Write a sequence for this structure.
């Protein structure tokens, strides 16, 4: 369904019991973030902060559940949209043998045309109030985390135009507020807007940019969607809302934006201007993305609707609100993958612990040898799937969101010597573990049932799996914790306190050579501060901390034969211990002062039973320093809050 504006969406959320209004005074500096972190970790409601010393209420966590994500897109299930896309593609691309078949397409083509964005004359509701002397300080822009570079606009829908093709791109890139009329523009290396920026730089021209906030919530989702190059995100928005998006011309540049947006920030980026230092920022990886140089956005005009609502979000250690934006993409784009690239793909899941791009599990209909590898390599070459680090492909009829069932299949179907493969390619610029910026390794696991041509060693289900835990702990004091509850599924997890160069590799070699670990397919090494009882946290931390090309490996016996068991080194990497030359970021947590303030105000917020700060759990994973981690350290001041 199409929402007339953001307020109408808020009304629906409230009617459905999915929103809480907070009338108590709350500071936009850290306090909104700490409250929201507690609520989102417990799958709580959307929050509307009505008392922030600004003229606009603040909406956050609006997409923070499957129900709210579905409401924003007007469906009962996210899989409905994939079905609609499948039906549309079949109607448009199926064989048309006769005149009647072609005539039957006319209503479908008419329906498609009704979703195309339309430029309209005059002013839109987004221009009810026009401020030609713009001041970003009048917006309730939140500061999310203690070591952020400043307050950030976190749900900006950024509009740019290719100077040569004139095709619009709509994306979402965080914006650090620098002063009253400038901000950073964090468009990353692989993004379309970055390509537009370089095109303007080549032409020696200033680049017009407009940013919207609010309006129909589908605009926010469309800006995050991995649309193919040169396809208009507002066409996707029109399809999702079943109504075309009406666009009006901005006041100070020629960009067109949705007429029903709550705010419009108009301006430009000057490619001839020196880049500015932007960041750090507590990011969706659960770590700080560190300061780097990005373009500066100059705001020339701010317009907004009457009674505008300021939408925002926080990201950090998962789960957060962005989990459901990612889940929507996972479900919505399954049909295009099936119908245009890989028809054998039956399902795909990107676990929230993998922060969208680190882990993907794919179920296929296998019909020939090598198909599992083919699917993995094809997906690594497809759009934003190029950022994936770990790809698991299987063909058994299981629920691939049941991760323990997936592990059982891997244990049953994978020959460690034949079915695990590596590749190298682009990784996300936020990936802190890759040996080189934005370039690193990828791990493929072919867990499909094998054709005779693929079998190198016979896998037997009665192989003797063993880990002598008592001897391991006694012999290696650096192993502080062990989790062997998944050993029958082929996984042993060891928490290690490293102290010397090559420590994990030496440890792995010794454990296997001495027979202390036998026939375990994956031996996972984590930092000693990780809670090994929480598998989601282990997966999140390890997936972030590996470059598979460096950290996933076999060791060899004295005859040069690989010893059974793949090492996965998910520990932090140090210059002196691992030869790691890049800065390492700290985990994102709140400080003791903010936690204490929110504890004290909790009863006034009307949010029900007291919820402990999630930061109290994660702060023991911190190292000395701020956004950049220092060399050593296990505890943090917030543990005493």
């Amino acid at each position: 369904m199409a929402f007339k504006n953001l307020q109408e969406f808020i009304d629906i959320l409230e009617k459905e019991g999915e929103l809480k209004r907070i009338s108590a005074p709350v500071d936009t500096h850290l306090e909104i973030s700490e409250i929201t972190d507690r609520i989102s970790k417990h799958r709580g409601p959307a929050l509307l902060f009505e008392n922030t010393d600004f003229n606009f209420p603040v909406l956050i966590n609006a997409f923070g559940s499957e129900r709210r994500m579905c409401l924003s897109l007007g469906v009962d299930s996210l899989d409905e949209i994939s079905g609609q896309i499948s039906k549309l593609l079949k109607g448009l691309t199926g064989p048309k043998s006769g005149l009647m078949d072609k005539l039957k397409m006319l209503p479908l083509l008419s329906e498609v045309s009704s979703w195309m964005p339309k430029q309209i004359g005059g002013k839109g509701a987004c221009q009810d109030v026009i401020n030609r002397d713009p001041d970003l300080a009048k917006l309730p822009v939140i500061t999310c985390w203690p070591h952020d570079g400043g307050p950030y606009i976190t749900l900006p829908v950024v509009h740019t135009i290719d100077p040569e093709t004139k095709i619009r791109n709509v994306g979402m890139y965080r914006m650090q507020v620098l002063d009253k009329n400038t901000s950073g523009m964090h468009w990353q290396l692989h993004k379309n807007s970055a390509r537009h920026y370089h095109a303007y730089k080549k032409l020696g021209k200033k680049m017009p940019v407009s940013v919207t906030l609010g309006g129909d919530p589908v605009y926010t989702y469309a800006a995050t969607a991995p649309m193919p190059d040169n396809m208009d995100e507002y066409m996707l928005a029109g399809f999702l809302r079943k109504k075309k998006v009406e666009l009006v011309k901005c006041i100070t540049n020629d960009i067109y934006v949705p007429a029903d947006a709550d705010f419009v920030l108009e301006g430009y980026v000057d490619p001839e201007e020196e880049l500015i230092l932007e960041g750090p920022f507590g990011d969706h990886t659960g770590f700080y993305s560190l300061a780097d140089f990005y373009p500066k956005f100059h705001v020339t005009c701010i317009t907004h609707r009457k009674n505008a609502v300021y939408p925002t979000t926080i990201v950090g250690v998962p789960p957060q609100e962005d989990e459901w934006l990612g889940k929507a993409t996972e479900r919505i784009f399954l049909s295009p993958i099936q119908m245009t690239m890989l028809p054998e793909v039956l399902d795909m899941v990107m676990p929230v612990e993998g922060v969208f791009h680190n882990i993907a599990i794919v179920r296929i209909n296998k019909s020939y040898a090598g198909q599992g590898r083919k699917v993995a390599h094809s997906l690594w070459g497809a759009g934003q799937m190029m950022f994936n680090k770990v790809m698991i492909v299987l063909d058994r009829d299981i629920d691939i969101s049941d991760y323990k069932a997936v592990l059982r299949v891997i244990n049953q179907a994978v020959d460690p010597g034949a079915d695990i493969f590596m590749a190298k390619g682009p990784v996300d610029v936020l990936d802190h573990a890759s040996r080189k910026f934005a370039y690193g390794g990828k791990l493929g696991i072919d867990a499909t049932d094998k054709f005779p041509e693929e079998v190198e060693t016979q896998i037997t289900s009665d192989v003797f799996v063993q880990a002598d835990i008592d001897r391991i702990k006694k012999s290696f004091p650096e192993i502080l914790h062990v989790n062997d509850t998944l050993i029958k599924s082929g996984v042993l997890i060891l928490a290690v306190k490293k102290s010397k160069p090559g420590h994990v590799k030496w440890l792995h070699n010794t454990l296997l050579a001495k027979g202390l670990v036998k026939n375990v397919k994956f031996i996972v090494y984590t930092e000693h501060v990780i809670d090994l009882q929480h598998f989601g946290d282990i997966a999140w931390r390890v997936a972030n901390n590996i470059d598979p090309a460096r950290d996933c490996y076999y060791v060899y016996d004295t005859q040069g034969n690989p010893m059974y068991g793949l090492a996965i080194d998910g520990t932090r990497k140090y210059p002196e211990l691992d030869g790691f030359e890049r800065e390492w970021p700290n985990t994102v947590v709140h400080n003791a002062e903010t936690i204490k303030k929110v504890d004290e105000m909790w009863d006034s917020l009307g949010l029900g039973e007291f919820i402990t700060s999630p930061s109290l759990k994660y702060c023991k994973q911190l190292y000395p320093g701020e956004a950049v981690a220092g060399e050593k350290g296990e505890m943090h001041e917030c543990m005493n809050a």
Notes: The mean pLDDT is 92. The first strand starts at residue 19 and ends at 22. The first helix runs from residue 6 to 15. The two ends are 45 Å apart (CA to CA).
